[in-house]
Design brief:
The strands form 3 sheets. The chain has an 8-stranded parallel barrel, surrounded by 7 helices. It has a two-stranded antiparallel sheet with strand order 2-3. It is 43% helix and 18% strand. It is globular. The N and C termini lie far apart (43 Å). The chain is an alpha/beta fold. It has one domain: Aldolase class I (TIM Barrel), CATH 3.20.20.70. The chain is built from 12 helices and 12 strands.
């Protein structure tokens, strides 16, 4: 089994357990209590290169990233550093996350929030909406295209923005044909073995139709990388591990963007 296979298997088991503890009907009854809308897609559409700053506790490749860190202190630093939006990794078994982290981020920041997880079930979409996510991630590598299409439409129906993530030409072509999303994430990390190649973004960019918001994900830790991505037409980047590993994530974010996201030249 690949790393991705293992994560999907554990995710399906965890969702089944949560569904037993809290049936879908109970969860859906909380939808009317959702807070004010924080448009995620709009935050990425502003001029210049936007940064989605991510909070995650650990990863299969790096282990524990920032021991003892609280969500509140990290997202506050991200907001001060100029992030356009937040990403909160909620997968538990491999990344140490939880929906509690998402709730804490919502109460500690005014920025729109992406729930980053391995979404395989409608139940997770309702969870996302109830706990304060403004957007969710759908990973093409983790889903059959029919699953992705159904989850995409269901997420839109719940008023969630959807970032659809691809890693190769075949995934991109299938996603464009099935759902034609406005937000496309290009993951430079191969989730089968967690290897990283920033060139993946450059190789796929030419195949993305004009008018899409493109997000480059993973392996980004230098200002020169961001400047080049902006130059070739990328709209936003998702950065987490390189910021979390620094003593001051706010200062690290400012240095990474040159202190001003709209001007990386």
């Amino acid at each position: 089994m690949t790393v991705l296979d293992q994560i999907i298997e554990s995710t399906e088991q965890a969702v089944a357990q949560r569904r037993e503890q809290r049936p879908l009907e109970q969860l859906e009854a909380q939808l009317h209590r959702r807070g004010a809308d924080r448009p995620f897609a709009e935050a990425l559409a502003r001029p210049g290169l936007s940064v989605i700053a991510e909070f995650k506790r650990r990863s299969p490749s790096a282990g524990e990233i920032r021991p003892g860190a609280t969500v509140a202190e990290v997202v506050d630093a991200y907001q001060r550093g100029g992030a356009a939006a937040l990403s909160v990794l909620t997968e538990a078994a491999h990344f140490g996350g939880s929906l509690d982290d998402l709730v804490a981020a919502r109460s500690s920041s005014e920025l729109p929030i992406l729930r980053k997880d391995f979404i395989v079930d409608y139940y997770q979409l309702v969870e996302s909406a109830v706990t304060g996510a403004d957007a969710i991630l759908l990973i093409a590598a983790a889903l059959e295209i029919s699953q992705l299409q159904a989850l995409y439409n269901e997420a839109i129906g719940l008023d969630l923005d959807v970032l659809v993530e691809v890693h190769d030409e075949q995934q991109l072509a299938s996603v464009l044909d099935a759902v034609d999303p406005d937000l496309i994430g290009i993951n430079n990390r191969d989730l089968r073995d967690f290897s990283v190649d920033v060139g993946v973004t450059h190789s796929l960019l030419a195949d993305i139709p004009a008018g899409k918001t493109v997000v480059s994900e993973s392996g980004l830790d230098e200002r020169e990388q961001l400047a080049e991505l902006e130059r070739v037409g990328v709209d936003a980047v998702l950065v987490g591990q390189s910021l979390l590993a620094c003593d001051d994530p706010s200062e690290a974010l400012e240095q990474l963007t040159g202190g001003h996201e709209a001007d990386l030249d």
